[in-house]
Specification:
The protein is an alpha/beta fold. The chain has 2 domains: 13-40 and 271-369, Aspartate Aminotransferase, domain 1 (Alpha-Beta Complex); 43-268, Aspartate Aminotransferase, domain 2 (3-Layer(aba) Sandwich), CATH 3.40.640.10. It has 12 helices and 13 strands. It has helices at 13-16, 43-55, 67-77, 89-101, 116-124, 142-155, 178-187, 240-249, 257-266, 270-294, 315-324, 349-369; strands at 30-31, 84-87, 107-112, 128-133, 162-166, 191-195, 216-221, 234-237, 297-299, 305-309, 327-328, 330-331, 342-345. The chain has a 7-stranded mixed beta sheet with strand order 2-8-7-6-5-3-4, sandwiched between helices. Strands 9-10-13-12 form a 4-stranded antiparallel beta sheet. It has a two-stranded parallel ribbon with strand order 1-11. Helix 3 (67-77) runs parallel beside helix 9 and helix 4 (89-101) crosses helix 8 (240-249). 43% of the residues are buried.
Length: 370
């Protein structure tokens, strides 16, 4: 039986061939595979959030413009409300960017290995993908960028229409060097979308460059640093013309009233967020030191996760061993250039200790059998 035999109409050919973007959700004691914050929001936030539920007028549509939330976000970043677009997680922001500026006859550029959803969303919107490589330090290779530009000039005007720069990059954790980003911003024919889902964990942000580069878009999320992955709230900071295009392609009333209220409330707890990020950065150093002590190869990280491999490079076997010990990390060993690698989220000290003990046990068994 082929796709569409029972329904009577098949999906698009390219959609029928797709696999959705998934990360395993298994019942384990230690879950370190999706880069969630290990700490819940402050108790005071949770208490006030419960009060806000009672104040929501559920029988009425929400503020379509999300004016209060956008205004508060803009104020926190020093930009006007006209430069802020909010959506259901940063992934919906990315989807709207591709709906507005991608599509048939246009292309998006990305540099592997990187966040897989950039490619997936491009495919779902009918946007062609131009792929460049990263160098030995996992930074964007500017020779590859020049190659993509040459291909774009041959293909037509404004190609690539969108260039994705994931910084810090997922799954490598590396903050893009300033000179690489500057070179791309100066020469890109279309939008440059800097995906800063992990931006607050890094020492530098592209937000400060917005005033000098009208084609720059910076995308952020509340999922990681704000401990609100369950809320699904993200936003873009961009030129007003870009924001207007995103609003044009977004579904009406796509941002519900409760989400808007919770987002505004979260911004009142910025000091707590900053302190939480600082604790995770400290724990990240301890996690890296522990992996190095075991003998792992560790990629320096500016995010809330660490990319690593063990000698021998059997990432899948290590992943299965960890699951057997009730520890779940992300197996990225099938991603481009990442054979043997796994990605682990920085957790609590107790979670990280359980992870390190399981990795050390696997390394010891591998050493005995060698």
């Amino acid at each position: 039986m082929t796709a569409g035999d029972e329904v009577g109409v098949p999906p698009r050919d390219d959609v029928a061939a797709m696999e959705g973007y998934h990360s395993p959700q298994l019942e384990v004691d230690v879950r370190l595979n999706t880069n969630e914050a290990p700490e819940a929001p402050p108790a005071a936030f949770v208490a006030r959030a419960a009060e806000l539920v009672g104040a929501v007028r559920f029988n009425r549509y929400p503020d379509r413009a999300a004016g209060e939330l956008r205004g508060r976000l803009g104020a926190s970043h020093g930009v006007g409300v006209e430069r802020v677009f909010c959506a259901n997680g940063s992934n919906e922001v990315l989807q709207c960017l591709l709906l507005g500026y991608g599509g048939p006859g246009r292309s998006a550029a990305l540099f592997e290995p990187t966040y897989a959803l950039h490619r997936h969303l491009a495919a779902t919107t009918g946007t062609a993908v131009r792929t460049g490589e990263r160098d030995g330090d996992w930074a964007i290779d500017l020779a590859e960028w020049d190659r993509l530009l040459a291909e774009g000039r041959a293909a037509g005007r404004h190609d690539p229409a969108i260039t994705f720069v994931c910084s810090p990059n997922n799954p490598t954790g590396r903050l893009e060097p300033a000179d690489r980003l500057a070179a791309i911003l100066e020469t890109a024919p279309g939008l440059v979308v800097v995906d800063e889902a992990y931006g607050q964990f890094a020492p530098r942000s592209a937000i400060q460059l917005l005033g000098d580069h009208p084609r720059l878009v910076v995308v952020r999320t509340f999922s990681k640093t704000w401990s609100l992955a369950g809320l699904r709230l993200g936003y873009a900071l961009a030129h007003p013309e870009v924001v207007a295009a995103l609003e044009a392609v977004a579904l009406p009333y796509h941002l519900d009233a409760l989400k808007q209220a919770m987002g505004c409330l979260a911004l009142e707890y910025e000091d707590e967020m900053v302190a939480r990020v600082a604790r995770l950065v400290t724990e990240r150093r301890r996690l890296v030191d522990g992996l190095v002590a075991i003998g792992a190869t560790v990629v320096p990280s500016d995010a809330n996760f660490v990319l690593f491999s063990l000698p021998g490079g059997d990432g899948r076997a290590l992943w299965k061993h960890l699951v057997d010990r009730s520890v779940l990390v992300r197996d990225v060993s099938s991603w481009p250039r990442l054979a043997g690698y796994l990605r682990v989220t920085v957790g609590t000290a107790g979670e990280d200790d359980a992870f390190l003990a399981a990795v050390a046990d696997f390394a010891a068994m591998a050493s005995r059998s060698a």
